[in-house]
Design a protein that fits this description.
13 strands; 2 domains; 400 residues; binds adenosine-2'-5'-diphosphate; five-stranded parallel beta sheet; eight-stranded antiparallel beta sheet; 23% strand; 16 helices; elongated; 2',3'-cyclic nucleotide 3'-phosphodiesterase fold; alpha/beta; Rossmann fold
Amino acid sequence: MWRRIVCSIGNLFKMGAKASKCKSPEGRSFPFLEDKSTIEVMKETRTFFILRGLPGSGKSSVAKKIVERYPSISVMASADHWKISPLPKESETDSSRYDKLDQQIKQCLGDKQIVVVDDTHHTRERLDYLFDLAKEKDYIVFIVDLRPANNDLDSLAKSNRNYTVQQLKLMEPELQKNIIPYYFGWFLARQDAEKMRTNAMDFLDEIWKNETFVEEFVKYAKSDSKENFNLKEYFQKKPSVLHCTTKFCDYGAVPNCESYAGSKIVGDSLSRCFVLKVSALFITPRTLGARVELDEDQQLLWPKDEEAVGSGDQVNLPHSSRSHITLACAPGEHAVQTGLDLLDILKAEKSEAQPHPQVRMEQGQCCCLGEGRWIMNLSNSIKVKTLFSGFYAIKKSTAE
Ligand code: A2P
């Protein structure tokens, strides 16, 4: 069964004024309402909640709870408030009937850290529009599905006299469809992302002062002008939101991504905070990245079906060795290259018999693996706070 952040209406109705718990059918509570560490990270992050479900499914109650939990930094934009009916009248065109709500959402994005949109969200077109808005302002999207217990539309229609069962049935099939993201991953809280970016720039500044590095690296860099080569300009292409990808799904096109998306561990982890350990920074003529070492719990989110790392090679690396944060790419390179570069570096580190040239740096020991590949193992690992979610916006160009 598909599990995003799913909450059943039956449980919502049981909630008393005092009980703030909103449990899913599996008895799981929402991390952003219940989990202390998640709540702390939420306060440092920009998040965009898309509450999804039939009229009367309890979306407004959840929206209200979020706004109560995060007073002053959150805002709710509700379709009901603007009297927008989920099923348009014949005289209404889809785009114009959302004008006022969209104006409100656009105003809130940037002004408020947490934006909650309360609507049925039963059309893909509407979702894509909102994903785009969130992406423009670098908000992490949380989709919260609210499903009627046992799909009982009769009870839902009875408790919500504005809609007939027939009308609910018109919306329901779309709401049953899975929304598979471009990729799942851990998204860094804003301050921690800043910290990582600063670390990366300090690393470039320092290593650029080392003659052994400059001489070796520039030979392999893809640049016409070796004399005027500038390391920081070379790594200009940076992701707007730093993240550590767990499963690349390409909106459902990648094999097995449906089962990953529907797994219990993913369902339980969505919107939850995780602290990742960055153990090294690495640089190649193609990418600049940070190595992430996952703990046991985090490894559970690493796709089991990932091709055995190093299979076919002489060197086998442990599962999840590829976990990383892309910090920047050289011109013409895609972010996916960072993970491949990391695997290549780890294999070279293990396999080469020759001692590698070493450079002592402020943050740790930096080692050259040839062909412009360098890795600095940090003396003190960096801890970064993240939230687990998906990236849903439709990619319009190859550059991010
Ligand atoms: P990562 O940076 O963790 O390698 P792009 O901007 O190239 O479309 O990619 C967006 C994100 O999706 C990248 O950050 C990259 O993650 C991830 N990604 C893209 N393509 C793949 C792929 N084929 N396999 C795994 N991850 C991918």
